[in-house]
Structures
1.
Amino acid sequence: MNREVIPQIVALYERIETETAAFQAASGLHCPPGCGKCCDNPEVEATILEMMPLALELWRTGEAAAYLERLSTLNGSEPCLCYRPDPLVPGNGRCSVYTWRPTLCRLFAFATVKNKLGVPELAACIRQKQTIPEQVERAKEAIAEGMSAPNFGEVATEVANIDPSLGSDRFPINQALELALQRVGLIAHLTFGEKDGDWVA
């Protein structure tokens, strides 16, 4: 496995952060305060490649074995293992590994999908539609008028192009993390011995 893929996916993540931040600033669209509804969903999926930066971080910090043990007890119907629901406010919560979250988590509610005519349309989340419907409509209109926003399909293609064997097939997010931890474990001992903790050989 080529370790070059990890800094490539990290670089993509950094670009997505820049693009979504620019879209939020230009459109005024935002998440409802404290909302974690999108994380509390067992149908969230990711590729192995997308979970490899997190997997490498967990091996680096010595947490990988504990995560693998917890992942082995899941039956596949649970939400993301890294999600921490708010015990006081239903629907609210946070990601415990926010820096390393995969593309779906970065793009959700701030990206477009193409309709049957190939025209990009905002894929707003249900909580946004319920709590800030006016801002959702303004963002939709702005996209229709040409405002730039990331696109789910284009990002998925970029992920697959980095490494087709690891970046094409999507799995439930917990399974993707387990597979990434197993793969990264094979190279972790080489990576962590390098000067300054570099990602690559």
2.
Amino acid sequence: MTLLIDSHVNLHHHAFAEDREQVIQRAREAGVGRMITICDKIENFADVIAIAEQHDDIYASIGAHPHYAKDHLDLTAEKLIELGRHERVVGVGETGLDQHYKFSPLEDQVAVFRAHAKAAHALGKTLIIHTREADAAMAELLEEEAGRGPLRILMHCYTSGPELAQRALKIGAYFSFSGIMTFKNANDVRAIAREAPLDRVIVETDCPYLAPIPYRGRRCEPMHVREVQSAFAELRGLSESECSALLADNFFRLFPSIPRVAS
């Protein structure tokens, strides 16, 4: 069985409230060797980190999604650093800009993003970026932060355009692709995934969202990362074993504090 890694899960989500342990076990049985469960609001961090503490193969992030930036205007880099020192925390975020729904004003999203970036610099942990319909502003912010010193950057669930992709690549960013790659109308996403340097790519489910074909319309689970990985392998002309080894190497380079598992 090839090694699978799901770099972005939301296991604290209420969609998993009734059967979280069974979901995790199904993922392991499918070959998922590592998962990162993501913090979307600071008030949810206790639930997020508890999941990571209870499972040796699950790690966590600390952060506030840009949708909720307006509710986190008092969030400081110092608070993120304090929480982010936990040994199971491997990333800061997800943070970034989202101008699709505009649940929070852009200026609030920028302010909260800056606190996350400062914390990522201080902690030496990967900055996990959510960006949608804000390509130019996101590129400028990332370039500014990369100019402050070494910074590992992950463009999570990438659906943005080629210009942002190129600018992010120039500052060393990695890209994660989700089940969107399997959607019929996702040609733009597949185009970016087809051209991305093979040493800068990982995969994810973003579960419980974005279930890949043939599960679209159902609750997504970490075990569905197999379909995501297979879709990427087919897109790039890789065998399953080649793809597994490649994605694992990239993942453990991007998150160096996570112990490797054999592929």
